[in-house]
């Protein structure tokens, strides 16, 4: 198992910054005729092709080792949840709020890592988790009646998927390179994503010629694919170089980038309670990062 923490952290920061652009590009595409699930479908198709070309060019075997099968299945399920649920949530709730909910996953990783390793999480980890969930309650609670429950549930499902994605990504990196398993993962999730897109579109895809998607919408959709391809590769490299519990806290950069970008390109403003709750969640993420370093 490779363990180069510095390189892993650098890849994590790069991935987090890029990932912060994705939900905003998806929201931009939605406003210009491209549903979120179709942006997901397009990026899934593109990353499967690009990673397959990279893997073949590097002489990688496009075969899943038997011992890697459980982690491959976990990675596929997790990637499907993150792709469909998290990106789908921004169709129903503001990007900033979706990010607050989704970004509970580093705290979940912090709590679960000792459990996965057969240890007690400890009182500090539990207190940090309580702070994070309290922040979520502050952000969502006062506005719950006016929020679309579908967006909240989708963002939460995406957070659970991201947690699984980190653990399974580290495990599968023992046996396969990111290009090899990344291409196969996205090939596997392509059929369900396509079916969901067709169901949501009543049998049609709006980004195809003749549909309502505008040129701006198609540009946003293409941006989702390009940014995701680079970010996913950086994320999986970060997990190849260091454990999930080491790199996960550095993904704290993503909610900052996502919220700031939403304000700049979408003119999106959250309510005061959502900023306050988001601040508590971010404080918990920073505390989890400090705790992770202190425990080493």
Distance between the termini: 18 Å
- The counted number of beta strands is 0
- How many domains comprise the coordinates? 1
Q: Give the overall shape, derived from the CA principal axes.
A: globular
Radius of gyration: 18 Å
Give the ordered list of helices and strands: HHHHHHHHHHHHH
pLDDT below 50 for ≥5 consecutive residues: which ranges?
none
In percent, how much strand structure appears in the residues? under 5%
Helix content: over 70%
Total helical elements? 13
Return the structural class.
mainly alpha
Please tell me the overall pLDDT: 83
Note the main sheet: none
Defining key terms:
296 residues; mainly alpha
Describe the structure.
With 296 residues, this protein is mainly α. It has one domain. It contains 13 helices and no strands. Helix 1 runs parallel beside helix 12 and helix 3 packs antiparallel against helix 9. The longest helix has 27 residues. It is globular. The protein starts with a helix and ends with a helix. 50% of the residues are buried.
Question: How would you summarize this macromolecular structure in one to three sentences?
Answer:
With 296 residues, the chain is mainly alpha-helical.
Compile the SSE list and pairings.
Layout: H1 5-19, H2 22-30, H3 36-57, H4 69-89, H5 95-102, H6 105-116, H7 123-140, H8 149-172, H9 178-200, H10 215-241, H11 244-247, H12 253-265, H13 272-295
Helix pairs in contact: 1-10, 1-12, 2-10, 2-12, 3-4, 3-9, 3-10, 4-8, 4-9, 5-8, 5-12, 6-7, 6-8, 7-13
């Amino acid at each position: 198992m490779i363990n180069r923490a510095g390189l892993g952290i650098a890849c994590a920061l790069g991935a987090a910054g890029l990932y912060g652009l994705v939900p905003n590009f998806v929201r931009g595409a939605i406003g210009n005729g491209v549903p979120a699930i179709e942006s997901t479908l397009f990026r899934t198709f593109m990353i499967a092709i690009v990673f397959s070309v990279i893997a073949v060019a590097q002489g990688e075997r496009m075969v899943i080792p038997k011992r890697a099968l459980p982690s491959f299945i976990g990675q596929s399920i997790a990637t499907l949840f993150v792709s469909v649920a998290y990106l789908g949530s921004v169709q129903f709730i503001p990007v900033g709020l979706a990010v607050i909910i989704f970004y509970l996953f580093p705290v979940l990783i912090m709590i679960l890592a000792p459990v996965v390793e057969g240890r007690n999480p400890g009182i500090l980890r539990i207190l940090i988790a309580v702070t994070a969930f309290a922040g979520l309650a502050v952000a969502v609670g006062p506005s719950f009646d006016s929020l679309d429950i579908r967006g909240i549930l989708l963002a939460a499902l995406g957070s659970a998927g991201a947690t699984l994605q980190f653990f399974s990504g580290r495990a599968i990196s023992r046996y396969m390179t990111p290009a090899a398993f990344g291409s196969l993962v996205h090939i596997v999730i392509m059929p369900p994503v396509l079916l969901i897109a067709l169901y949501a579109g009543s049998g049609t895809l709006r980004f195809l010629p003749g549909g309502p998607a505008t040129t701006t919408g198609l540009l946003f959709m293409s941006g989702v694919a390009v940014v995701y391809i680079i970010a996913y590769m950086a994320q999986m490299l970060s997990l190849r170089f260091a454990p999930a519990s080491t790199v996960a806290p550095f993904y704290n950069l993503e909610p900052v980038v996502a919220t700031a970008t939403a304000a700049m390109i979408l003119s999106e403003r959250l309510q005061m309670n959502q900023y306050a709750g988001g601040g508590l969640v971010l404080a918990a993420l920073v505390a989890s990062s400090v705790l992770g370093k202190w425990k080493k």
